Every structure is written in structure tokens, then in C-alpha cells.
Amino acid sequence: MTNILRQFSFELPTRIEYGVGIVSKLGDELKKLRAQKVCIITDPGIIKAGLLGKIKPILNEEGISYSIFDGIDPNPKDRNVESGARTVSSFQADAMIAMGGGSVIDCAKAIGVLVSHGGERIKDFEGRTKVKKPILPFVAIPTTAGTGSEVTFSAVITDTENNYKMTVKSPYMAAKVAMLDPELTVTVPPHITASTGMDALTHAIEAYTVKVSEPVSDALALYAVELITQNLARAVKDGENIEARASMLVGSLLAGIAFSHSDVGSVHCMAEALGGIYDAPHGVCNAVLLPYVMEYNAEFCIEKYARIAKAMGETFETSREGAMKAVERVKKLAKEVGLPSFKSLGVKESDLERLADMAAGNISTDSNPREMSKEDYLVLFKKALAD
User: Fold this and answer.
1) Minimal CA–CA distance to 360: which of 379, 384, 387?
2) DSSP 8-class letter at 305
3) Nearest to 214 by CA among 365, 4, 371, 367
4) Could you report the per-residue pLDDT of 247-304, keeping only the tens digit for each?
5) Which of UniProt's keywords are assigned here (predicted)?
6) Most buried in the list 31, 35, 299, 305, measured by CB within 10 Å?
7) Which CATH class is domain 15-185?
8) Cβ atoms within 10 A of the Cβ of 306, count?
9) According to CATH, what is the number of the domain 190-386?
């Protein structure tokens, strides 16, 4: 079904600044925010990689005082958010810098919600309607090419009491500016480059194929597919290849804008269930499940899969042939970049029923191009575990 007659709205509250070395202009961006006291939200990996050395001199030169909060887990937890909010509030910060991957940037959004609303539990803000006003302003500086979190206005946070991933969403949560500097991604290890890159590809493919897709997000998603499939293996094999890194960063950005204005589908529903129970990295979960869900959905979006195959550079004579080529190309790419198997995540057969139930209850299940029940999810989980 064409989406050209469907109503849609498109809002991008975040200004994008992109380019090699663009982070050097951080001082100018903080001046625009009239920031005097800034809290840097990051994680231990970013500190270990020495990336804060790119921004500390800028803050010192501008006479901006700062504190650092690095207590963020790979899958951000409610306790990380609440601890971070206490740090930001006690420092009386008037702005934040979120420097890191999607976990860091999502956590910064959620911290901003608690600080601006005077809340204590991020759980109280779950959903699309609880954030009532702009959060503490922040600059997002992504260091991975995967989530696109720098241009989305939602945060996925693990509810540790119930072991599931909740979403807090509002345009009020958007970063004021996203500074995308390909140089900041060159230190990312190959295995993280691979999983985050496949995560971005998942965003693009699902944004394009879900029932609620719209023309602007379609265009962004297809170009993201092209950039990612042409450059992911290059970035994994040669992390110093700045052109490949730049292409991946732009691909991730476009995919992030696409899915935040469309939706995701069953890959994310399954991945978030996995992440909630096993605390497995979100990018890895998406990456290992993408081929299974694509294969399952193929008959229900043949024309769109064929367009995806074309964006991937595949040639074919019929749309059905193209759709199958898209599925095979994703499988091949996953192997080429050395992704782990689903089984390697330590999934127990006894948990499959619960995982399927959680996936079916995810709000994005309704957007998937193929109708999905708990039983359908169970079939996919069993197939993935058996391979």
C-alpha cells in the first residue's frame, strides 16, 4: 500500500552540525546556550579512550566550569538516570554535554527530564505524555555510528524492578544541537563498529518497511541503507578509514531521523525483550535478529524489500527476486563483519515464552509489516536459537 496519501508530520527539534573536526566548535554552541556550568554525561569507555581530551580544553578556554558523570551501563538503567540527575542537580548545571553512544545520550535525555521536572523516578515519566516541558538543554556528541539517538526525542531505559525496557518520549527531550564528528568514531573497536552499524541498518530497514512509514522518512531510510551497506565492512576492517567512518556516521544519523518519524518493528520488539531479561547490548540484539525477521516479513513487503535491495546495489529481474536478495545481503553482511550468533547471547529455551510475550506486548508490534502474535514471535525465537 502506498503511503503518499497518508497524513504525516515531520519535526526535527535538533540542529545538526556535521564535519571532521566539528567538535572544535563546541564552545560556540555552549555560548549560544549561555552555559556557565556544564555536566558532561559519559561512560567509563569514553574516558578510557581519552575522548574527553577533545572537549575539556574547550571548556577551560571558555571559562566554563564542569563536572563529569560517567555512571552509565551499556543498557542504561533507571538507577543510572536517577544517580545522574542527583549529580547534575547538586552541581547546579545549566546545561549538559552527552558524549558517547546511544546509552549515554538516552541517559542524558532521561536525566534532563528528572532535573527539569523535579522528579525522582524516571519510571514516572514512561510513555509519550508525561514530559510536560523542555528538559535541561544539552549538546549531543555521538561517538558511535549506530543509534541515531542524537536526533531522536526518546530514551529507552531499563526498569530494573521489572526487567524490561521502557520508553520515555517527547519532542521536549531533543538535544538542542547534535555535533557529529567522524574523527571521534575512529577508536571504536571492530566488534562494536559491527554491532552498532547493523543496529543503524535495522533502524533504516524497519523505518522504511513498517506500516506507518511516510515519504520523508522513506527517503532518508533508503539512503541510509545505501551508505551503511557500502561502508560497514570497510569501517570494521579499517577503523582509520575516515571516509568509511564518515559514511557510517551519516548513515546512522539518517536512519535515526527516519525511524523516529516512522517507527520500528518486530526486530526491536524482540531485541528490547532480550535486553530487558539478559542485559545484552541493544545493537547486538538487533543485529543478530534482523535477518530472521526480514526473512519472516519478506512476503508481506516484497516491493519495499526490492527497493532496499536496489539501494544495496543488488541487481535483479523481479521484485520477488529482489526481496530475497535483500534478505541474503543482510545475512552476508552480518557474517562479513563477524557478528555473534543469537545462541551466543546465552538465551535459555525456558525463557522463550516470556520473551515472546514481552515482544508481543511492545507498542511497535502493531507497526510491523506482518501481523505478529506471541506465537509468531515464539516461532522466530525458536528458529534463532536452533541455528
Assistant:
1) 379
2) H
3) 4
4) 999 999 999 999 999 999 999 999 999 999 998 888 889 989 999 999 999 999 999 9
5) Oxidoreductase
6) 305
7) alpha beta
8) 21
9) 1.20.1090.10
Report how many helices (DSSP H) and strands (DSSP E) the chain contains, helices first. 14, 8
Q: What is the pLDDT of residue 126?
A: 95
Residues of the chain with CATH 3.40.50.1970: 15-185
pLDDT at 118: 94
> Within the chain, which residues score under 70 in pLDDT?
1-2
pLDDT tens digits for range 72-90: 998 899 999 999 999 999 9
Are 11 and 103 spatial neighbours (Cβ–Cβ below 8 Å)? no
Burial of 187-226, coded b for 16+ CB within 10 Å and e otherwise, reads: bbeeebbbbbbbbbbbbbbbbbbbbbbbebbbebbbbbbb
First to last CA, the chain: 33
| pLDDT score of 238 | 97
Query: Please, which residues bridge with residue 142 across strands?
Result: 100
Cell numbers representing residue 156 in the block: 529507552
CA–CA gap between residue 193 and residue 332 (Å, rounded): 16
pTM check: above 0.85: yes
The C-alpha cell at 282 is 541493544
Give the DSSP letter of residue 21.
Answer: T
d(CA 81, CA 104): 10
Task: Name residue, grid cell 558517547.
Answer: 100
Evaluate whether 356 touches 375 at the Cβ level (below 8 Å): yes
pLDDT at 163: 87
In the numeric block, the cell 534463532 is attached to 384
8 Å CB contact between 262 and 217: yes
Q: Give the whole-angstrom CA distance, residue 41 versus residue 103.
A: 10
